[in-house]
UniProtKB/TrEMBL annotation:
GO MF entries: DNA binding
Start and end residues of each Type I restriction modification DNA specificity domain: 1-168
One GO term (biological process): DNA restriction-modification system
Pfam families: Methylase_S (PF01420)
Source organism, top-level taxon: Bacteria
Name assigned to this protein: Type I restriction modification DNA specificity domain-containing protein
InterPro entries registered for this protein in UniProt: Restrct_endonuc_typeI_TRD, Restrct_endonuc_typeI_TRD_sf, Type-I_RS_S_subunit
UniProt keywords, alphabetically: DNA-binding, Restriction system
Family the entry assigns: Belongs to the type-I restriction system S methylase family.
Length: 399
């Protein structure tokens, strides 16, 4: 392994603040810094007349910036190119890298727990009494610094992994965007001969009953909370994530095999009515902010009805509420969708299920790749792995 120099940040970067006087008639694009090294947060533009500061700090590409107030949360990053003119208050000091430190390399360092811990150590106190991290103290942080060629090799290797991550993310986004149009196109194909029917004509909606997260136990009666439909469950569910005591069974509303479970509450209209079909063993209890749709349709097809273009378009007129959006069982039943014959329902369900399985595999692959990225970065910055001039020798060493 090559020897890395142990330096203080003050030896390789310098405080470099471009303070710009605030003009009342000028509009300023304001930024913040996300915690855990996650980059910049761009805020809405603000007129100078609405800003109490006399000056703002202008951020330039490749500059290091952190939040003095939130540094203990890892609110530090390196500014990318292409941002245009952006500004922040004096609470966001900026620094420029010297000749010995590549900004791209330090950008990787800002995503590490080690640096976050060092920042936390400089910020004493609790809550509102926590002290800000001063630029002078920040510059005392110690960093193990490889040579410039080795920094460049590390940056290039991580950029290659990041390109794979981004490609997988794009593929997942594209696949997810296909789901609703695909249901619509399959239902509208000439061979489907789907008749337009209201959901009340093919099933009924049954509201769940109240339970709280404090009721959860390690095993017992499986249950589905409406929040799980939004965050954890896909179009098909075969295993419960949480359980209630068996003694709750008689007072709960239970979904059986083939029943569709629908979220009746959401923070936005887009996610209102998100659904999953229960294809597991036995029955599951349902939270009272969700409905059981008991129907005469193919179970898998029935789940995908709730992402169809017809359902998505009509639910908007029935959504109620501002901060929290709700839809009633009565209004759900009024929504009209194309219902093809049983054989076509099965074919549509199989086609959609295949798409979702492909997406699940991509999501799993992305999770593995992200885990590999994290392990690789840690190994590189801890000098557990050294990138040779020939990159081909790297992969067998880290796997």
């Amino acid at each position: 392994m090559s020897d890395w120099a142990m330096v203080q940040l003050g030896e390789v970067i310098k405080l470099d603040i471009d303070a710009v006087p605030v003009s009342a008639g000028t509009s300023y694009d304001i930024f913040g810094v996300l915690n855990r090294g996650r980059g910049l947060l761009r805020r809405e533009a603000v007129l100078g007349s609405e800003i109490s500061y006399k000056t703002l700090n202008r951020l330039r590409p490749n500059q290091i910036v952190y939040s003095r107030l939130k540094a203990f949360e890892g609110a530090i990053t390196v500014a990318p190119h292409g941002l245009g003119e952006i500004f922040a208050s004096q609470e966001f000091p900026t620094f420029t890298c010297g000749e010995r430190l590549l900004p791209e390399y330090f950008a990787l360092v800002t995503t590490t727990k080690r640096l976050w811990a060092q920042l936390q150590g400089l910020s004493t106190g609790m809550g509102g009494r926590r002290e800000r991290v001063k630029p002078g103290d920040f510059l005392t942080i110690e960093l193990a610094l490889p040579s410039l060629p080795e920094q460049r090799r590390i940056v290039d290797a991580m950029a290659a992994v990041d390109a794979l991550v981004e490609a997988l993310q794009r593929e997942i986004v594209t696949g997810e965007a296909m789901r609703t149009p695909l249901v619509g196109s399959l239902v509208s194909e000439p061979e489907s001969n789907g008749s337009i029917r209201s959901l009340n004509e093919v099933g009924s909606f049954i509201r769940g009953r109240r339970f709280t997260k404090n009721d959860y136990v390690d095993s017992g009666l499986g249950c589905i909370h409406y929040g799980q439909i939004h965050t954890d469950l896909g179009a098909i569910t075969t295993e419960p994530l949480t359980y209630l005591p068996d003694s709750f069974r008689d007072r709960m509303r239970l979904a059986g095999y083939g029943d569709v479970v629908i979220a009746a509450t959401s923070e936005n209209t887009d996610d209102l009515g998100k659904a999953t079909v229960w294809l597991g063993n036995g029955e599951v209890a349902l939270h009272d902010d969700a409905y059981i749709f008991r129907h005469s349709l193919d179970p898998v097809f029935a789940s995908y009805v709730f992402i169809s273009p017809a359902f998505q378009a009509q639910k908007v007129q029935y959504a109620a509420g501002t901060k929290v959006t709700r839809i009633s069982a009565e209004n759900l039943g009024k929504i009209e969708v194309a219902i093809p014959g049983p054989d076509i329902q099965t074919k549509i369900g199989e086609a959609m299920r295949a798409l979702d399985q492909d997406l699940e595999e991509l999501v799993a692959e992305l999770a593995l790749l992200r885990a590999f990225r994290s392990a690789l970065l840690t190994a590189l910055l801890n000098q557990e792995v050294e990138i040779p001039e020939s990159y081909e020798a790297l992969l067998p060493e880290v796997l």
